[in-house]
Every structure is written in structure tokens, then in C-alpha cells.
Design brief:
Blueprint lengths: L21 E4 L2 E5 L5 E3 L4 E4 L6 H7 L8 H16 L3 E4 L15 H11 L3 E5 L14 E3 L2 E3 L2 E3 L9 E3 L4 E7 L2 E10 L3 E3 L10 E2 L3 H7 L5 E5 L4 E5 L6
Parallel strand pairs: 4-5, 5-6, 6-7, 9-10, 10-13, 11-14
Antiparallel strand pairs: 1-2, 2-3, 3-4, 8-9, 11-12, 12-13, 12-15, 15-16
Helix pairs in contact: 2-3
């Protein structure tokens, strides 16, 4: 394992070639990008989870001031990925906005960038617990869940076979050469995947939390940690709390 694992969280989101890493679910091989998205080549489908757009402005309304640039940073990072993969379909797995009114607070340049991202492709918003209802004026189509072949895309994981979900914001902590390294990760066991949160202001939940045991059963799954230019796979049993 190289020092790339210890690079800052957003290092994976810059330009340049990315090393391929695959995760299989229900017999379907998916490309897992170190930026935290999945790509299904046969369907030309890009999947991203938990954008939490307008989280900064949501906090500001409650008196907790954060730099108001999270939406722009998140959409720009996603723009790099749509340019890289040129998907025919993009699926956003819920909690795309941090609250029900998030879409109405978007700045005009951010709304224009979102429109640009959707141009020439199908864009599907999956309902999340933060944004259960269709948001006005943001384009795309809305669904509670979406089944495509052996795969079902949804926001909250249920543990079902073939499921790709978000919601839990998985992260893993690894002890390495006397240091603790914490990275966002994909959690997967061949039958289901929980995706890392993509939003600029999103946190993470340790994969040893009971919420993951409820989905996968004990530690019988793999944490695919996001590195600067690649992913690093560890059995959940080797992660630390």
C-alpha cells in the first residue's frame, strides 16, 4: 500500500488518469472510481450518492455559518466525472439536496451547471430521506427506486440482493504503520453495495457501526477505501473503530 491512501479527501477529484477498480454485485461488474462513483459500462450508467447540495445554506439558515461553496464544488466534481465517462444515464441515489427547499436556494450559476450536466443524457433523481419529494425546476425524472436488470437502485439500504444504495455514508478506519487512516469507502459483499457520500460537506459513518451489520451481517463484507488515484480493499474485519 502506498502513501496515496493518506492524501486529502478531494485529491481523487482532480484531473488525470484514474486507475480502474471493479466491484461486482449480482454478477454485474461495475467500475468503482476513486472519486466515489460507480460506472456500469454496458448501460453507460453513472451512479452517485448523497450529493447533499445546499447543505451550507441549510446550516446558515439555522445560524451555523459554513462557506457557501459546497454546491458549486460538488457539481464541479461531478462535471469532471461526466466528462470522463460520458454516461448515457446518471442516477443520483437520494439526499441529492440537503433539505426540501434546497433546490430553491441554488445560485443561478449552480443551476446552470446542473442543467449543463443533464444535457444530452437521462438524469434520474431517487428520493431520499432529506429530499423525499420532487424538487421544482431541476430537470430530470424522479423515482422512489429503480430496477435495471438484476440491480435495484435505492436510497436507504435494506440488505436485498442486487441492491445499490447510499444513505449511510460509509467510511473505514485502518491502522497502518502506527497511524490511523480514515477514508470514505464503498461497502460491498458481492450481493449489495452501499456507496460513499459524494457531497463536499458530507461526513462518514464507520463501517463497524451496527447499521452495516444489519445490512451485511457481522463483518462479512469488504471496505473499498477511496485513495488519491485508486481504491484499497480491506475486509471489514480488519477495520478498526
Amino acid at each position: 500500500m502506498t502513501g496515496a491512501l493518506g492524501q486529502p479527501r478531494n485529491a481523487a477529484r482532480g484531473g488525470g488518469h484514474q486507475i480502474s477498480h471493479t466491484i461486482t454485485v449480482s454478477g454485474v461488474m461495475l467500475a468503482a472510481d476513486p472519486a466515489g462513483v460507480l460506472y456500469w459500462p454496458e448501460q453507460r450508467l453513472l451512479c452517485v450518492a448523497d450529493l447533499h447540495l445546499e447543505k451550507g445554506s441549510s446550516f446558515a439558515r439555522r445560524g451555523m455559518m459554513l462557506p457557501p461553496y459546497d454546491t458549486r464544488a460538488t457539481l464541479q466534481a461531478l462535471h469532471l466525472l461526466t466528462a470522463r465517462y460520458a454516461p448515457r444515464v446518471v442516477i443520483a441515489l437520494g439526499d441529492s439536496f440537503h433539505d426540501r427547499e434546497g433546490a430553491t436556494r441554488m445560485a443561478a450559476p449552480d443551476r446552470d451547471l446542473l442543467t449543463q450536466l443533464q444535457h444530452g443524457r437521462e438524469w434520474i433523481w431517487i428520493a431520499g430521506n432529506h429530499d423525499p419529494d420532487p424538487a421544482p425546476g431541476i430537470g430530470g425524472t424522479f423515482a422512489q427506486a429503480l430496477a435495471l436488470g438484476p440491480i435495484e437502485f435505492r436510497h436507504e439500504p435494506t440488505g436485498s440482493f442486487g441492491e445499490i444504495a447510499g444513505h449511510l455514508h460509509p467510511s473505514a478506519r485502518i491502522a497502518w504503520r502506527g497511524h490511523a487512516i480514515v477514508r470514505r469507502c464503498f461497502a460491498a459483499d458481492g450481493n449489495r453495495i452501499v456507496m460513499p457520500a459524494f457531497g463536499a460537506y458530507t461526513g462518514g459513518l464507520n463501517v463497524l457501526d451496527h447499521a452495516f451489520a444489519n445490512i451485511f451481517g457481522a463483518s462479512a463484507f469488504t471496505a473499498h477505501l477511496l485513495g488519491g488515484r485508486r481504491l484499497y480493499a480491506f475486509s471489514a474485519a480488519h477495520c478498526v473503530g
